[in-house]
Amino acid sequence: MTRIFQLLLCLAVASLSVSAAMANSIRIKDLVEFDGVRSNDLVGYGLVVGLNGTGDGIRNAPFTEDIMSNILERLGVNITGEQFRPKNVAAVFVTATLPPFARTGSTIDITVSAIGDAKSLLGGTLVMTPLNAADGEIYAVAQGTVIAGGVAAEGDGARVVQGVPTAGVIPAGARVEREVEFDFTRLKTIRLALREPDFTTAERIEAAINLTFGRAAARMLDAGTVVLDVGATRAISPAHALGAVENIAIAPERKARVVVDQRSGTIVMGEDVRISRVAVSQGNLTLRIQEQPLVVQPNPFADGEAIVLPRTEAEIRKEPGTGLAEVPGGTSLSEVIAGLNALGVAPTDMIDILKSIKAAGALHAEFVVR
């Protein structure tokens, strides 16, 4: 019975280890970027019409009048010598991302942003706008009704704005007119670029790919690049090779890192962060200065002027600190944070403490401040 119990215990431990490894495994497609499989940025300059009096002021944005004149002339409307001052049009920048392998006729989402003094794009319609890439060629044409990201209301004495009404989106608002010329089928080797370069992770990707195909199909070049030999995979095309590679799961290695946001007091840390033996003391010093001027007026019907006498109250107050606390070596940062929370340390003070621990050389992690 004892041997059976030991065997069952070993099987249970092995099952838990495999489950933990599978839980930490991530697909290669979520860790790397494939060479040649990339998107391209598009930008255009257009006009939004149909606004309810919330468009550009023509005098403050003369470029709106220029583009409106060009559009009307292309439509056969002669406006030479005419002066118009509409308030229902707005000049906008149109931006989009052309995804990899986008084909002619497919649609993409676009973002519309006002560049003049328009107050809102709510309810407006984007007139046909060509979208150019970095090479100056037109790859898509955008048009449609703008879905604004906010709302604005105003009266004679007040104005209320919620969100950003001067920017909006048009889902599937652009149609692809030109494809990016790239022959993916001719690639003999494909580079896998790690989003976060790491030698251990790159080695694990190489080993997992070679184990899958049973031969040396992948080779690590450096911490951020693994080269895949399409011929060694015996796939009929590079697309089939990547289809077999991208779903292979590995356990990536992460750097010990602490990220803090001073504006919101947010602290994010990894599980591998460690702190050496260090002593921490924290206290607050508050300086308060308040002005309370005193106005002295002359008696009624007497000649004289009112005199303002300055009165200042200054106070320096020192709050009791958390004392001198010693942190033993090898302690995880999560344990230190839990201890500081138990002492009632504010998030902003906690960030200052972490900065000081890092400056003392006791925090063994990359420290990122945003």
TrEMBL record:
It comes from the Bacteria. Belongs to the FlgI family. Assembles around the rod to form the L-ring and probably protects the motor/basal body from shearing forces during rotation. Keywords: Bacterial flagellum, Cell projection, Cilium, Flagellum, Periplasm, Signal. Its main location: other. It comes from Sinisalibacter lacisalsi. The basal body constitutes a major portion of the flagellar organelle and consists of four rings (L,P,S, and M) mounted on a central rod. This is Flagellar P-ring protein. It is found in: Bacterial flagellum basal body. HAMAP family: FlgI. Residues 1-20 form the signal peptide. It holds the Pfam family FlgI.
